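Entry 14. Two folds queued back to back today. First construct below, sequence then structure tokens.
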Amino acid sequence: MKILHTADWHLGKIVNSVHMTEDQAHVLAQLIDIVREEKPDLIIIAGDIYDRSIPPKEAVELLDSVLTQLITEFNCPILIISGNHDSPDRLQFGSRLFRENNLFIETKLTTELRSLTFDDEFGPVHFHLIPYIEPADARSVFEDETIQSHQQAMETIIDRIKARENMEERHVLIGHAFLAGGMETDSEERLSMIGGSPYIDSYLFKDFSYVALGHLHQPQKVTYDWIQYSGSILKYSFSEASNTKSVTMINLAADKTIDMSRIPLQPKRDLRIIEGYFDEFINGDKAEPTEDYLHIRLLDDGQILDPIGKLRQKYPNILRLERKVLQSNRQLNELNQIKEKQKMTHAQLFHTFYEEMKGEPITKERKDHIDQVIQTLIEQERGK
């Protein structure tokens, strides 16, 4: 069975105040061309279709246009799950009607853990659509108060799948999660750690034929060749400047082995980091005039009058301009502190703020209260 795996479209994304809809439409047109050329038997979109729970109308229109063309022109099954950026309720709208057109959308966990089965010339392939969930969601669905982490939630899900299914057959799991050992970028929103760690061990998925994941934006495998993140369709932060975006094409054989390739996506405007001296940019020695999204690092020591205004005459899409100067130890310490805080969850940030303001650790009672407030706000944001 030939499967196209993509994820993390983040339709409606804004990068440094720039709306990315036009750029997203450009690469999604390439995706349609890839489907036309490769003729996959099935398409997987592993979460974070939208960038936020209430997407702008331009994002909704783009998704409608792409899915309509895929369904009407190719009529191959499309399997979609919700990610941590999607609103389960909004993305689920019309899902029962869409099934009649081979569009399958799963946004909420159920005790049944229904699978979808499609046949090729070698027999059935079973697909398990597991949308992004918080540990609290799993506790509620399975009525199991021992579930306190993402790891325990996924263990419960997979144990139930294995108890019901013949794992000697071919099984594909579609998920949106953070596997331990996966490489992060700055453009992913860290998953909530309320109720436990966000990390999941890859060994849980060793009995599946293929695991199609979303959430991490860099294309990569985790531990096993059959556990893959397809990555995002565009670079959404300068930490991804060196990455090549792609979709993942899988050929799943009868013996459960896979043949995998990544098909590159070419952006309308690349996102790049360039450094050099001001005069080199102005004279065109460093880089040709371009509409790419740029982070320019200037190496000059002296003052420069209106550098951004002058540079934008040649490079209109400068998103960030900095002077690369030697940092003092104090500045480096401050930078390290900022980086550490960027890795913290909402709850951890509040706990740190509380200690800085009060000069004492937060009490367990207050910590539990704040964690519950943050959890409620997260659920409201996702439209639950």
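Second construct, same run, same settings:
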Amino acid sequence: MAAPRDLSIPTIDISRDPAVVGHEIDDTLRTVGFFQITGHGVPDDVAGACWEAATAFFDLPLAVKSQVERTEGGLYGYFPMRSESLAMSRGVSTPGDLKESFNIGPTRPPAHEPVDDDERALFSANRWPAQLPRMRPAWEAYFAAMDALAVRLMSIFALGLDLPADYFAARIDSSPGALRAINYPEQQLPPEEGQLRAGAHSDYGTLTILRQQTGRGGLQVRDEASGSWVDVPAVEGAFVINIGDLMARWTNDRWTSTLHRVVNPDAGAAVSSRRQSMPFFHNANHSALIEAIPTCVAPGEQPKYEPVLAGPYLAAKARGSVAATA
């Protein structure tokens, strides 16, 4: 194993000239698929209301949360403890992750007729707890803010790749994004062998926007050059951004879809502290063809990957992460 290097996770102010920011992001994503952003313009009250509603939901009794548990094969609703094993998306068998979550998908129906059952499922109805009437409006407002921020970032990405700012626009205008809140409860018992709060995985789509809790560590990214794991600190008011596998394919691996995980921060202690996070997963249109961007293929070289349709690729990845019932 190579010696550890100083792999930093930079914080980038995206309120500046988009072309300048795009090339800074390009430089970063050539080495590590993570960075943090400020200057994003998401109102604190919109983010805070969604966060607080998520906390209130996780504080409900299990019997109440289970009333909105996702249906069999469904995508949205409550996911109980240990119901996912993210490492399984890479073919690594581990016990179910030590987390529970609540997921929603698009808050508006698509402007077109879905092409298959997988796309139809992406636009299926969200499930809301009757005991928390404030949850739906808070989450829908935050979803809209995240979706708009993702579109803005994709435009900046295009400039960083020496493309027109609207290069991705027609490929993401029916994007089936997803918003998730994750609760990592205090651990009263030691984890099983190989069990983490979230196993090592890469994300599947274009990009992820993460709000994480300050003062609660655990998120780490892998430095492939050295094999070491690097902490991603929580920066007040910032969002963590990482790209997913589809964006790495789109850029012909010019950009890195980095493995990451959430570890048990108090390993060896009787109790490890509770942690909460909120990722928004942005994707390409279900029928978008993902093939190497011309500016990412050197003259005389061939693309590394065969073209794929975004929807079927993402569906296969998602099915691979479902853990056996504990």
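Quick look at the second one. The first helix runs from residue 18 to 29. The radius of gyration is 19 Å.
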